[in-house]
Design goal:
The chain is of the alpha/beta class and 241 residues long. The chain folds into 2 domains: 135 residues, Resolvase, N-terminal catalytic domain (Rossmann fold, 3-Layer(aba) Sandwich), CATH 3.40.50; 84 residues. The protein has 9 helices and 9 strands. It has a 5-stranded mixed beta sheet, sandwiched between helices. The C terminus is likely disordered.
Length: 241
């Protein structure tokens, strides 16, 4: 059985705890639970938000672990990174029977512990449930942020994404504005239609004269869209903004 210490050197100096101080804390904690650290991994360059398994030393540590091993770190936040990633990591460690002790929590948060011949979940199950709940909250906030951003763009009259209609383009400010060269082609399409050209005939004309390949259904949609915009002045003002 191996006992691994994990030291995280924060890039933000305000949260940096010297490696010597962390090592001392890990050693004392290990001694308090009857263990001795056999190897220490020091993470120096990874950002706090980076998933543990993607960090250079974090990934190396996980590859070294086997069933029955123990990881000790000073703070849970330094190894869990986020609710989603933390839940995933604890699920992996629990499956592999690797204990994760956090000095700031004073407990093993990944697998049940044996205490006086009684198997106790301790705070492991509580932490997993808490992270699962936070993951749902984070996902909800992310979805809400996307919806709010789209609502804000819609109120400004900005383009919300998807295929750009023929005759239009998206400018640098995110607004849908007329594409002059394509608008001229639309004018010719409208003229041909007024002259009783069929959709298929217009499609052939566009292919032969402008090398534009639009199906007869595509021509019909362009004409329908053009009529709708002409009948909706408010929309035209927004796109020309």
């Amino acid at each position: 059985m191996h006992v691994f210490g994990y030291i995280f050197l924060a890039q933000d100096k305000d949260y940096l705890v010297p490696a010597t101080e962390q090592e001392r804390a890990l050693t004392e904690y290990a001694r308090s639970i009857g263990l001795a650290i056999t190897e220490i991994f020091v993470e120096e360059q990874a950002p706090l938000q980076q998933p543990f398994h993607e960090r250079p030393q974090g990934g190396a540590l996980l590859r070294r672990c086997a069933a029955g091993d123990t990881i000790i770190t000073m703070k849970a936040a330094w190894i869990l990174s986020s609710a989603v990633e933390g839940e995933r990591l604890l699920r992996l460690l629990h499956k592999d029977r690797v204990a994760l002790h956090c000095v700031d929590l004073g407990a093993n948060i990944s697998v049940p512990e044996k205490r006086r011949l009684i198997v106790s979940e301790g705070c492991a199950e509580l932490v997993r449930k808490l992270l699962a709940a936070l993951s749902v909250c984070e996902g909800s906030r992310h979805g809400q942020a996307i919806r709010m951003a789209k609502k804000h763009r819609r109120q400004q009259g900005k383009y919300l994404g998807g295929p750009v209609p023929f005759g239009w383009e998206v400018n640098e400010e995110g607004f849908l504005v007329p594409n002059e060269s394509q608008q001229k082609i639309i004018d010719q399409i409208v003229t041909m239609r007024l002259e009783r050209w069929s959709y298929r005939e217009i499609s052939g004309k566009l292919r032969d004269e402008f090398d534009i390949r639009l199906s007869h259904e595509g021509v019909r949609k362009i004409l329908a869209g053009n009529s709708k915009r002409q009948a909706t002045p408010g929309m035209k003002r927004r796109t020309e903004r």
